[in-house]
Amino acid sequence: MNIKHNLLDIEGTTAPIAFVHQVLFPFAKKHIVRFLNSYQFPEDRLREIKLEFEKDLALNEEGFFSRFSKSESKIIPGSLSFSNEIIPFYFEYLIEKDRKFGPLKEIQGKIWKEGYESGEIKSIVYEDVPGFLENAIKEGIKNHVYSSGSVEAQILIYQYSELGDLRNYFTSYFDTAVGGKREKESYKAIADKLNSSSNQIRFFTDIVEEAEAASSVGMDVVILNRPGNLPQKPHTYPVWDHF
């Protein structure tokens, strides 16, 4: 197989799940109300957030209404409606749910940027990653990232890692703007953007459903089994414990 591109997930693949869930998510949740108090969303993003909010409102999931008791208006379920004032508390709720929602991911990236630049955050990347990426480049293989985190957040993880600035190892970055990671159309879109046939791309992930989506369009697939990764359903894909 003539592999010309490595497409790499981040969480559970090149970086520990624990770093994302125990460092990045709590940092964003801690600062999101403060950050959004002075942030102005574009109109198209406001419409997107309002639509997502109203979907949750209709579902009435457990814990949804209690999230907004912090607000000054002491909103109760019968009077709950979308407003700019409610967005910070809604985003707190989405962080708790680990919702893969574009506007949230963008804001998280901006908050993390503050943390990285101030030195409060230093990302953890597995020690075998730089050598693997460097060897790939020497073999003529380009490295790319595909993660549910925003492109900005992806770049920050590799820029401010404990192993140094790793950005030079990567050619391009993709987030869910190309589509969900469990949807085969996303991988078709990435292959198109790389101007490559799918069978020239090897996708590295820790999630079987993502591997299935990539494999369904002809990509080669490797599952990473890093410490702390979640158990996966039975599958026939190759499994690596390290690069």
Automatic annotation (TrEMBL):
The keyword Hydrolase applies. InterPro entries: Enolase-ppase_E1, HAD-like_sf, HAD_sf. Keywords: Amino-acid biosynthesis, Hydrolase, Methionine biosynthesis. GO terms for molecular function: acireductone synthase activity; magnesium ion binding. CDD domains: HAD_EP. It comes from the Bacteria. The keyword tRNA processing does not apply. This is 2,3-diketo-5-methylthio-1-phosphopentane phosphatase. The lineage of its organism: Bacteria, Pseudomonadati, Spirochaetota, Spirochaetia, Leptospirales.
